[in-house]
Amino acid sequence: MPKSRILAVLAVLGCLSGLTAPAVAQDDPQAYDRTPGMLETTTGPDETYPVTLDHDVWVPEGASAADPRPAMVIAHGFGNSKDVGEVTTLAAFFAGKGYVVISSTHQGFGQSSGCVALDSVDYDARNVSRLIDLLAARDDVLMDAPRPLSELVEDGDGGMGMMGRGGMMDGTMGRGRDGGRER
């Protein structure tokens, strides 16, 4: 199934902690800040293809190094951007419930540079991994792993999942739980 369909409504990546029952989720909506950014990175099979990813980080009020929060990535469907209603509504909902959220526009769409790459571990998955690393570098994000998720994924140890209207995918961006490698 194409990644664009899986991500049509919502891609929630369990980036560094279990997100089904966050330790600090709020019952009542709380205030949050939405900060836009442009992440310059490289992607592709050899990680030499430059790309700039347009993204927003949604931070709930009170999130800090002393009070870190669970985090997630929310992605849009094919042909859209981080600014479509489905993405902004979900990001605001989860930020209001205590999550640090990053939403981005996939490469080749909106203000993000690069060419569209459908179902690509070398492009799409690396881009999402870089966004997760951006979250992991924040002191207001709850971490339970000793190193960035991109390293865990490369080693085949990073568990992440996506869910959306098209179904669910588990493992390391479609390569399976072992990263597609024999051990």
Task: Please give a structural write-up.
This protein is an alpha+beta fold. It has four helices and six strands. The strands form two sheets. It has a four-stranded mixed beta sheet. It is globular, with a radius of gyration of 15 Å. The protein starts with a helix and ends in a 12-residue tail after the last strand. The model is unreliable at 1-23 and 157-183 (pLDDT under 50).
Q: Uncertain spans, ≥5 residues at pLDDT below 50?
A: 1-23, 157-183
Count of DSSP-assigned helices: 4
Widest β-sheet, arrangement of strands: 1-2-4-3
The helix-and-strand class reads alpha+beta
N-end to C-end Cα span: 27 Å
Strand content: 15-25%
- Helical percent range? 10-25%
Task: Give the tally of β-strands.
Answer: 6
Largest sheet: number of strands, sense, barrel closure: 4 strands, mixed
The overall pLDDT average reads 73
Taken from the alpha-carbon principal axes, the silhouette is globular
State the order of secondary-structure elements, H for helix, E for strand. Answer: HEEEHEHHEE
Cα-based radius of gyration, to the nearest Å = 15 Å
